[in-house]
């Protein structure tokens, strides 16, 4: 069954990130499968209007100014006419929004549902419940998801988080992980330094990525191992913390801050390293560790969110988000490298190639589209009732977005973080 799909998100190229690469690669695979796919995002600098990318992927860069962190100001009514015009012009059947933090995704889905189109939403991240920003984001997500036909999460932990904070029934949420193009991430041992041990860390330099932990780990490891060098790629407000540590400890020759990297530079940077370090404090799914494993690096990561689901135990060393635990995991990885007992780079690459294949991900997403297309349409009146009910503080049990657990269910403990790997083992019901 051929579909006309519109991907909507604030996050797309030329901006770089996991959501951006997910939308682009998934769109390419869906086009290969015979579907028509377009993308709607906001303008980036002078990139305004319609642009065409690989395989004729049509991208609408809307002339809307961003408010904060590459997200537009939420208006709904101001963007209604332009969304409606694009949906009608392109004969869109299914609107697929990405990221709970994307204003355009929320607006695009709401407008699509009011026009009678089907809507799917993919949540790429975890969110808390306590601070004011999390509370507001969760309420907005609850309202939006009360009208969608189906929701996708990238990990089982992400699914549980979305079900809890958006009050979506679990049977309306599918788990489809991210993937990576393994043809772009191949091992090459000739690119590595033989007289050094290089630890690579690639991420945005923000608090959520655990940069404070990384800054505390660096001087400890450098004192213990004279041959260890750190290669850190990415930019952000926490870069200053790393620069201060490097200056204070006199590690200019052993800690390299590469700044923001282009997508084409990521593979070459990974090939220089022996160990990949991820210190995230929260993560629904970390595509960076998948790319590092595909390049044959040993992976050391904090044990948070959906990370335990991504790689099997023999391919990753996990530690609690604590300095001493991370240092201990790095000690083990360095010792394994020195003894030559670590897993073969090509074995790691083959595992990633078999497990995280974009064609498989696109096929599974296509099944969601097929199911959504067959669902009966909601009248505008019923849809508005769902939005109204989900926007109220008191919940009832009608509608997708108004699922409230019973008293008996509330008494039961809810497991947020799972340690088992669902993507390479069958889940037992």
Automatic annotation (TrEMBL):
Any one biological process term the GO annotation gives: GPI anchor biosynthetic process
MF GO annotations: phosphatidylinositol N-acetylglucosaminyltransferase activity
Domain Glycosyl transferase family: 188-335
GO cellular component: glycosylphosphatidylinositol-N-acetylglucosaminyltransferase (GPI-GnT) complex
Keyword annotations from UniProtKB, A to Z: Glycosyltransferase, GPI-anchor biosynthesis, Transferase
Enzyme Commission code(s) on record: 2.4.1.198
Record's keyword annotation contains Transferase: yes
Domain PIGA GPI anchor biosynthesis: 42-131
Pathway: Glycolipid biosynthesis; glycosylphosphatidylinositol-anchor biosynthesis
Enzyme class, first EC level, given as a word: transferase
Keyword Phosphoprotein appears in the UniProt entry: no
Superkingdom per UniProt: Eukaryota
Gene3D superfamilies recorded: Glycogen Phosphorylase B
Protein name: phosphatidylinositol N-acetylglucosaminyltransferase
Organism: Daphnia pulex (Water flea)
Lineage per the UniProt record: Eukaryota, Metazoa, Ecdysozoa, Arthropoda, Crustacea
């Amino acid at each position: 069954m051929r579909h006309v799909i519109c991907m909507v998100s604030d996050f797309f190229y030329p901006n770089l990130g996991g959501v951006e690469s997910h939308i682009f690669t998934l769109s390419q695979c869906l086009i290969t499968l015979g579907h028509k796919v377009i993308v709607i995002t906001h303008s980036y600098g002078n990139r305004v209007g319609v642009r065409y990318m690989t395989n004729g992927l049509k991208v609408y860069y809307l002339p809307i100014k961003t408010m904060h962190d590459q997200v537009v100001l939420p208006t709904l009514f101001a963007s209604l006419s332009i969304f409606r015009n694009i949906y009608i012009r392109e004969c869109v059947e299914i609107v697929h929004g990405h990221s709970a933090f994307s204003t355009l995704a929320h607006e695009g889905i709401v407008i699509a549902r009011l026009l009678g189109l089907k809507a799917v939403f993919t949540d790429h991240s975890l969110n808390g419940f306590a601070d004011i920003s999390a509370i507001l984001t969760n309420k907005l997500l609850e309202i939006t998801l009360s009208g969608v036909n189906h929701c996708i999460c990238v990990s089982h932990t992400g699914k549980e988080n979305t079900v809890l904070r958006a009050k979506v029934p679990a049977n309306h949420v599918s788990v489809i992980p991210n993937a990576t193009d393994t043809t772009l991430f191949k091992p090459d041992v000739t690119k590595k330094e033989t007289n050094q041990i290089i630890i690579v860390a690639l991420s945005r330099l923000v608090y959520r990525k655990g940069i404070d932990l990384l800054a505390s780990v660096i001087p400890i490891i450098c004192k213990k191992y004279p041959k260890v060098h750190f290669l850190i790629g990415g930019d952000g407000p926490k870069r200053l913390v790393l620069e201060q540590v490097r200056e204070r400890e006199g590690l200019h020759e052993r800690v390299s801050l590469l700044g923001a990297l282009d997508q084409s530079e990521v593979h070459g940077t990974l090939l220089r390293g022996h160990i990949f370090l991820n210190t995230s404090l929260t993560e629904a799914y970390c595509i960076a560790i998948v790319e590092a494993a595909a390049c044959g690096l040993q992976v050391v990561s904090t044990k948070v969110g959906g990370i335990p689901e991504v790689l099997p135990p023999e391919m990753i060393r996990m530690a609690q988000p604590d300095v001493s635990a991370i240092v201990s995991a790095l000690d083990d990885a360095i010792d394994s490298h020195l003894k030559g007992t670590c897993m073969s780079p090509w074995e790691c690459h083959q595992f990633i190639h078999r497990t995280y294949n974009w064609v498989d991900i696109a096929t599974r997403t296509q099944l969601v589209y097929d199911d959504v297309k067959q669902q009966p349409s909601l009248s505008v009146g019923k849809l508005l009732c769902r939005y109204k009910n989900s926007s109220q503080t008191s919940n009832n049990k009608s509608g997708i977005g108004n699922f409230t657990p019973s008293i008996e269910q509330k008494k039961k403990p809810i497991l947020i973080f799972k340690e088992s790997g669902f993507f390479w083992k069958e889940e037992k019901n």
